[in-house]
Write a structure and sequence with these properties.
The chain is of the alpha/beta class and 388 residues long. 39% of the residues lie in helices and 19% in strands. The protein is globular.
Length: 388
């Protein structure tokens, strides 16, 4: 969706206005000295407001870059016209398809994260919230379910149809957000910062701070390179899952794919606080995520059940295929069955499956209730501004 409210918030991702303090003021607006000016202790100049260029595009009056509005697709493309840094493999269409995101409410650990976001941000009906790194839009849809007005920005345009129809969506780089100052009172980022190097983490925090209102709050879920004694249990479960995966008893590939381009630049919680301070933010609240129930239920047992069901479905399909195809043709088809074969689309869960998953989700929430005060790497944090 491309609403009038969204259009009023948009700015050129790489151009700053001329006005600023003595250190960041320039004679003309534009992209010159962006990093220095954007990181100024005064908060830096605002992004240059975009102007309509017909009904299907916006144009920056400073650099003349043209940004298309895909009204049929329901999003605006405000990605920088030159590379900012390394691009995650989540921007690859085939990779995204293999992840198999479906339009269904988040459950299990995803629901734990989503509920922590809604709770710690105190998300209420009428609130405006920005999803930084929204992916297909699943969490943004969940945020809107409570009555909030959710917007999402991601480098890849692989949005769920319902997200494209109901949410304000922007293709953009989190390191160069295409939003004017103070556009959102609340924002969040889930499972994103670990994909960035240290410079990228710093830039995302700085850009998020600029997009927030004076009393705005940013929720993050990511992890530092630390671990607790409880984390040793999770590592043991992961080793078991890998061994079962090699024997074909569990599908360990999707989880390995999801983490395959993790950079893990945050060395410790103190290091994260330093990065926040450099961006004009402070950690106002933090809860740790030691996964014990999740490790057993979601990472092991449910994957074993899913793999067994998949094997049964494959065997049933093979028997049906054998009954309708000559033996020679079947042998030839089987020989080439995996040649460039796309991943089978994941079906949305049934009502019964959702009910079971929600029941298990309550068990997984015990990881936060019981162990949320035990320092470890993964954490939920709420950040606030320290300077205006």
């Amino acid at each position: 969706m491309i609403s009038e409210a969204l259009l009023r918030k948009l700015g050129c991702p790489t151009c700053l206005e001329a006005e600023g303090c003595e250190r960041c003021r320039r004679d003309t607006a534009g992209p010159a000295d962006y990093a220095e000016r954007a990181g100024c202790s005064c908060g830096g100049p605002d992004k240059v407001a975009l102007r309509a260029d017909g009904d299907e595009a916006l144009r920056c009056p400073a650099c003349a870059a043209r940004y298309p509005l895909d009204r049929a697709g329901g999003h605006a493309d405000l990605s920088p016209r030159s590379a900012v840094g390394a691009v995650t493999q989540y921007a690859d269409h085939e990779f995204h398809e293999r992840l198999g995101v479906v339009d269904a409410p988040p459950v299990l650990s995803a629901r734990v994260k989503a509920d922590m976001m809604r709770g710690l941000l105190d998300l209420k009906p009428g609130d405006s919230v920005l999803d930084l790194g929204c992916g297909a839009g699943k969490f943004a849809l969940y945020a809107s379910d409570c009555g909030a007005t959710a917007s999402g920005v991601d480098i890849a345009p692989f949005f769920l149809p319902r997200a494209a129809a109901t949410l304000d969506l922007v293709i953009g780089d989190l390191r160069r957000l295409p939003f004017r100052k103070g556009s959102f009172p609340k924002a969040y980022t889930l499972d994103v910062l670990e994909h960035l190097d240290e410079t990228g983490v710093r830039e995302v925090l700085l850009e998020a701070r600029r997009a927030l209102t004076a009393n705005g709050r940013l929720f993050v879920y990511t992890h530092a390179m630390e671990s607790s004694k409880l984390a040793a249990f999770q590592r043991a479960v992961n080793r078991l899952a890998k061994r079962l995966g090699r024997r074909g008893l569990i599908d360990h590939e999707r989880e390995a794919m999801r983490k395959s381009d993790h950079v893990n630049a945050i060395r410790s919680h103190e290091h994260f606080e330093e990065l926040c301070a450099g961006a004009g933010l402070r950690v106002a609240d933090r809860r740790y995520y030691n996964v014990v129930f999740k490790a057993v239920i979601e990472d092991l047992l449910l994957r074993m059940i899913e793999q067994r069901r998949r094997a049964r479905a494959g065997a049933s399909a093979a028997r049906e295929h054998d009954g309708h195809q000559p033996v020679a043709a079947h042998a030839h088809a089987h020989e080439h069955a995996h040649d460039h074969a796309p991943a089978a689309p994941r079906k949305p869960p049934t009502r019964f499956e959702l009910a079971v998953a929600m029941a298990l989700t309550w068990l997984l929430k015990l990881d936060v209730v019981l162990f949320g005060g035990v320092r470890t790497g993964p954490f939920f944090g709420v950040l606030e501004k320290t300077r205006s």
